[in-house]
């Protein structure tokens, strides 16, 4: 039976090479695009699934109810309380990333990025295999455990365990002993590390920067990510009551801090409202990309149905003869479905090849490596094969259902009435394809408009002709560097701040409302040097800017801070919320990207926080200024490479997700266009052949070639109009939801849909023009002899 189905299917495809070719091209393109998108989706959804105890692994969060901010920081002292007073916790591991860490290799110091200060229980929480000492591996102060990758780099073809290495921590050389080597964390893990060192180094770093309190015992020094492993019979919610009791013991009544737990499974996608330094996924993007894959597949399925109904008339007699010989409707339906499935299976290797060829380009769009993860192999195979079979099944379902119900006598008498009904069905399916294409095109235009809006709208400071130089580990030299480059004639101003604008991180602090200590206002803090406001063109509307030497305890507020704190004339006054004097008020500017509203802001001046130097240069002089700046960098910081970005580059980086989404949707629109064009091209050819006599009669009766062409174009033009109108409501609905992610956004303009209509009309009409023109040129005598 299967052999018979296969023989029949191959025979049909051989007889209908055009049908087979168009469908193979359409299905393979759709599946290839979908496979690439699904590779990204599957990899994203598999984050943190490699840990066998993931359902029992949690991290501690703390919520500041006064300012409604949650982050993943916890005090170091909390670890001891969790170990002593929470018997349902098996292991607790506080972690903190170590900054300014490098390892000596030969005579050079190699920076290591992901250095984690922790204790030995970190390997019990995350079931990562460690070679070397098993118990208390990090207890000795000068212990270090390397990842396999870093160990191979530092000790090629050697056993690193037991060997010493020289590490530079906070610009001081320290001798560390390699106690073990751990397997690299899976690439789809949010928690990553290149090496682990004793937690004492993080305590020293924090205490050296915040000298007024001891980070080891202070409950308000919430700088550690604390991970824990619960017993299997407990969940994170079971600890809430014990947390509430602990909070009452250690915090005063006016301090509204609350601890909670977040399961590891929720860390990647459930942290959008949590201030965290770990990588985060975006479920909205997952839904968008999954919808794109589904729509591309749907277009290919519609394409198959359109062409199947077009060629089905030629199969009517075949069906009639089979039924006469005893074949039932169920058998006929099974045969036609199998043909569709066989076609989709033939397409699978082609689609996989195209997906593999397109993967490098997709990696640029998704801004990530689309790795084939060994742990996901079964999922990849299951999803790809299931999707292929599903599209074959769904595509052939309509045709199989329709043809299997045809009456034998009607078929053999050539009295099957299929023309108008099939024509309406095909028209509806073409309109559906065009609707999807129009949605893609108009969405692309709206997303790109928002991207351009974000790049070009005035944020309240210079967004052109500014260069950001990352001082990094050399921030102590920022003052000398700024003073040296300010002397260049083409440099208009230079100043430093803790971060570049727009800031990608935030530092919110609960300020007491003047005269009412029970009310707290969330205020963001920005540390700048004495020249930053001038360098960035931030407008002072009241009072004055910072002046070197006189403003160590001076503050500048933005307009929103003045309003939120209820201040009428703050300049020159001391206020309770800050230990100093307000010397000025600046006009509101976009501290963060356009995704966020402008927060209340307090700025203070210090040369100690100039980690990013903003250089404002004359327009068109970057090529001449940059070599001079680099030469000064080499004089002041000779041992460090200079990392820099122009404002244009930085803004594009901030809004790279929007740009990539615009490109992905436009590429999807291209695939939708290509697949729909294949179908429309093939359908037009079938229609022209089936209407050859009709066209001949029209020409005999006096119809001109131009009139025949226009009659075909008018039908397709009407379908384009209907498709464009039908695409407007879903596009507005979806794009309004997407634009709701921005506090500052563009409007959805009418011209978007006009351009979409023009694109759809050009595509549809040019596709049918060739065949309609050929049909209009046919000799009426030859047309009437046709068949």
Automatic annotation (TrEMBL):
Protein location: Cell membrane
Annotated transmembrane regions: 20-42, 288-307, 340-357, 377-404, 425-448, 661-687, 708-728, 748-770
GO CC annotations, alphabetized: plasma membrane
Domain MacB-like periplasmic core: residue ranges: 21-213, 512-590
UniProt xrefs under InterPro entries: ABC3_permease_C (IPR003838), MacB_PCD (IPR025857), Macrolide_Exporter_MacB (IPR050250)
This protein's UniProt keywords: Cell membrane, Membrane, Transmembrane, Transmembrane helix
GO molecular function: transmembrane transporter activity
Top-level taxon of origin: Bacteria
Topology class, membrane: Multi-pass membrane protein
Pfam families per UniProt: FtsX, MacB_PCD
Record-annotated ABC3 transporter permease C-terminal domain positions: 291-407, 667-780
Name of the protein: Putative ABC transport system permease protein
């Amino acid at each position: 039976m299967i052999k018979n189905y296969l023989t029949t299917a191959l025979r049909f495809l051989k007889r209908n090479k055009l049908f087979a070719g168009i469908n193979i091209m359409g299905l393979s393109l759709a599946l290839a695009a979908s496979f690439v998108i699904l590779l990204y989706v599957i990899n994203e959804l598999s984050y943190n699934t490699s840990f066998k105890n993931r359902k029992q692994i949690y991290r501690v969060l703390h919520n500041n109810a006064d300012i409604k901010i949650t982050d993943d920081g916890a005090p170091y002292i909390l670890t001891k309380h969790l170990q002593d007073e929470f018997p349902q916790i098996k292991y607790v591991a506080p972690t903190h990333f170590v900054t300014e860490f490098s390892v000596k290799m030969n005579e050079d110091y190699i920076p290591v990025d992901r250095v984690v200060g922790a204790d030995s229980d970190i390997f019990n929480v995350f079931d990562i295999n460690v070679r070397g000492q098993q118990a208390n591996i990090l207890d000795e102060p000068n212990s270090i455990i390397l990842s396999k990758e870093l160990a191979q780099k530092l000790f090629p073809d050697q056993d690193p365990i037991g060997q010493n290495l020289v590490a530079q921590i906070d610009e001081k050389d320290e001798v560390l002993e390699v106690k073990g080597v751990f397997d690299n964390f899976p690439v789809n893990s949010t928690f990553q590390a290149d090496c682990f060192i004793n937690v004492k180094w993080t305590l020293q770093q924090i205490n050296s920067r915040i000298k007024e309190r001891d980070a080891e015992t202070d409950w308000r020094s919430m700088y550690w990510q604390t991970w824990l492993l619960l017993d299997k019979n407990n969940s994170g919610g079971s600890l809430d009551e014990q947390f509430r009791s602990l909070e009452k013991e250690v915090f005063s009544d006016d301090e509204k801090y609350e601890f909670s737990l977040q399961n590891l499974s929720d860390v990647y996608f459930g942290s959008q409202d949590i201030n965290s330094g770990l990588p985060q996924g975006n479920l909205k993007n997952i839904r968008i990309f999954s919808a794109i894959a589904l729509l591309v597949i749907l277009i290919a399925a519609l394409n198959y149905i359109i062409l199947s109904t077009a060629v089905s008339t030629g199969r009517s007699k075949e069906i009639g003869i089979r039924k006469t010989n005893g074949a039932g409707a169920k058998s006929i339906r099974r045969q036609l479905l199998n043909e569709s499935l066989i076609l989709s299976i033939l397409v699978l290797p082609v689609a996989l090849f195209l997906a593999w060829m397109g993967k490098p380009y997709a990696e640029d769009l998704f801004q990530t490596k689309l790795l084939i993860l060994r742990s996901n192999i079964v999922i990849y195979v299951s999803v790809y094969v299931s999707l292929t079979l599903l599209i074959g099944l769904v595509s052939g379902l309509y045709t199989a259902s329709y043809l299997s119900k045809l009456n034998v006598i009607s078929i053999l008498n050539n009295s099957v009435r299929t023309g108008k009904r099939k024509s309406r069905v095909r028209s509806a399916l073409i309109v559906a394809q065009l609707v999807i294409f129009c949605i893609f095109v108009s969405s692309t235009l709206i997303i790109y408009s928002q991207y351009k809006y974000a790049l070009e709208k005035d944020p309240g400071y210079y967004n052109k002709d500014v260069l950001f130089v990352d001082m990094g580990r050399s921030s102590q030299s920022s003052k000398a560097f700024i003073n040296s480059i300010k002397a260049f004639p083409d440099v208009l101003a230079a100043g430093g701040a803790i971060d570049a604008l727009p800031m990608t991180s935030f530092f919110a602090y609960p300020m007491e409302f003047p005269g009412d200590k029970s009310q707290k206002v969330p205020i963001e803090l920005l540390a700048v040097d004495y020249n930053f406001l001038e360098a960035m063109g931030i407008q002072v509307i009241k009072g004055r800017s910072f002046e070197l030497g006189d403003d160590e305890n001076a503050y500048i507020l933005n307009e929103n801070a003045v309003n939120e704190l209820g201040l009428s004339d703050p300049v020159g006054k001391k206020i309770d919320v800050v230990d100093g004097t307000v010397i000025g008020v600046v006009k509101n500017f976009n501290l963060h990207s356009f995704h966020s509203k402008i927060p209340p802001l307090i700025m203070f001046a210090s040369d100690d926080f100039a980690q990013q130097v903003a250089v404002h240069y004359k327009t068109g002089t970057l090529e001449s200024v940059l070599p001079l700046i680099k030469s000064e960098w080499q004089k002041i910081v000779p041992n460090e490479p200079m990392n820099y970005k122009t404002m244009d580059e930085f803004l594009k980086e901030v809004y790279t997700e929007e740009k990539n989404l615009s490109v992905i949707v436009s590429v999807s629109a291209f695939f939708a266009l290509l697949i729909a064009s294949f179908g429309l091209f093939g359908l037009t050819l079938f229609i022209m052949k089936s209407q050859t006599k009709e066209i001949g009669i029209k020409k005999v009766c006096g119809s001109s070639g131009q009139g025949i062409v226009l009659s075909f174009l008018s039908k397709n033009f009407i379908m384009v109009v209907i498709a464009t109108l039908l695409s407007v409501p879903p596009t507005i609905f979806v794009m309004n939801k997407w634009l709701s992610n921005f506090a500052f956004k563009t409007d959805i303009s009418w011209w978007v849909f006009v351009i979409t209509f023009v694109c759809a009309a050009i595509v549809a009409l040019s596709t049918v023009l060739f065949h309609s023109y050929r049909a209009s040129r046919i000799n009426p005598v030859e047309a009437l002899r046709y068949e």
